[in-house]
Amino acid sequence: MSVSIFGRSPADSAAVLTPYESEIGCYVDESELSFTNRLMSVLKAWVNHPTQVATVVPSSRRLIENIADRDCVKQAKSIIELGPGAGGTTIGLLTRMRPDANLLAIEKTAAFDEVLSRLRDPRLTVEIADATNLLNYMAERSLGRVDVVVSGIPFSSIPSTVARRIVQSVYESLQPGGTFIAYQLHNDVEKYARPLFGPSDCETVLWNLPPLKVFSWRKI
Description:
By secondary structure, this protein is an alpha/beta fold. The chain has a single domain (16-218), classed as Vaccinia Virus protein VP39 (Rossmann fold). The chain contains nine helices and ten strands. The chain has helices spanning 19-24, 35-48, 61-68, 71-75, 88-96, 113-116, 134-140, 160-173, 188-197; strands at residues 2-4, 27-28, 78-82, 102-107, 119-120, 124-128, 146-151, 174-184, 201-205, 212-218. The chain has an eight-stranded mixed β-sheet with strand order 1-6-4-3-7-8-10-9, with helices on both faces. Strands 2-5 form a two-stranded antiparallel ribbon. It is globular and about 40 Å long. Mean pLDDT is 83; it is low at 1-23.
């Protein structure tokens, strides 16, 4: 299921606009920015699909800033997000992306479709689908290699064969010099990515429940 999300005028719905969002036609409902709203979406998804949801608590602002407030994101023309969940990181990426950039967000858990569909931005396309088919989705959209891939997929909770396939697809989707960022509770993603990317840069974000590790690699 694919949903293209386009900007609407303030008259279409109650929206909160920053000057930056106004320039690019991005409209985000105020309720979607609240931690409580994202928490309810995560809990609902976890009840229905417990093995697909990494944590029952949405990403904190500190974690979102650690992921999105990077030069590679700010300079990117194209970004892919795997496992956007309730959209907290998605909003962080959109806030810092260039006005002419684009973001493809692929989410497997259908329970997140409703909250993600409320993020209206001409740069954003949401695909409710499986990340193992990443390269096919890119080909269908004639999307060339991208600058950044961000993943919240819990690699410690999925079969190793699936994890390796996803990381291989991430590697192939990135252009040389592109960046792969994965925020995780455990270190499993390191063993899947190291053979392709080499050792990671890793830091722990303590101001998150639970504290998570943010791994990053640059494709040579």
